[in-house]
Design goal:
single chain, 168 residues, mainly beta, 6-stranded antiparallel β-barrel, 1 helix, elongated
Length: 168
């Protein structure tokens, strides 16, 4: 049974070595945030299954992992491209000025003139900074998730205030 709300923490890139390990790209600031977890939820497009993690190791900027019962490169290849998630309730609480990106999905985005731009559909990195994809009545727009643009995040009120024109 899939737990309440899953937070995607990374993606399995490819097999690693000959003993069933996989390379994992983590989406958190610390690749080790997944390392101590004995179970991950893996899947794609809402189709999740629980996997028991046998071992993890830091390998440069990436994490490598091996699942119970996965002991060959062929078995590891079946995991390629799958997302790695954990239950939201298993994550540590955030401080007052912190949040998990997943908690921003669905928040309303308004600009400094109190115009509604839409709701947060996704956050991703473009290499230089994070980008917020906002879906609204006029379509989608991409906003840089940087201090000059994102002025306030109020999860309790369900909104994000941005310095961004409606016609930009």
């Amino acid at each position: 049974m899939v737990p309440g709300r899953l937070i995607v923490m990374g993606r399995i890139l490819a097999p690693f070595g000959v003993k069933g390990w996989v390379k994992v790209e983590t989406y958190s600031e610390s690749p080790g945030s997944l390392a101590g977890r004995p179970r991950w939820w893996i899947g794609r497009d809402g189709d999740w299954r629980e996997a028991t993690v046998a071992q993890t190791e830091q390998h440069g900027v990436r994490l490598v992992a091996r699942f119970e019962g996965c002991d060959s490169p062929e078995a590891a290849a079946a995991y390629r491209g799958l997302d790695v998630a954990v239950p939201r309730e298993s994550l540590p609480p955030t401080r007052e000025d912190e949040f998990y990106q997943a908690d921003l999905i669905g928040l309303e985005v308004r600009n400094m003139d109190d115009e509604r731009l839409g709701t947060v559909a996704e956050l991703f990195s473009n290499g230089a900074h994070d980008v917020m994809r906002v879906a609204g009545d006029e379509g989608e727009r991409l906003l840089p998730f940087i201090d000059r643009v994102v002025r306030e995040v109020d999860i309790g009120a369900g909104r994000i205030l941005v310095d961004w024109g409606k016609d930009w």
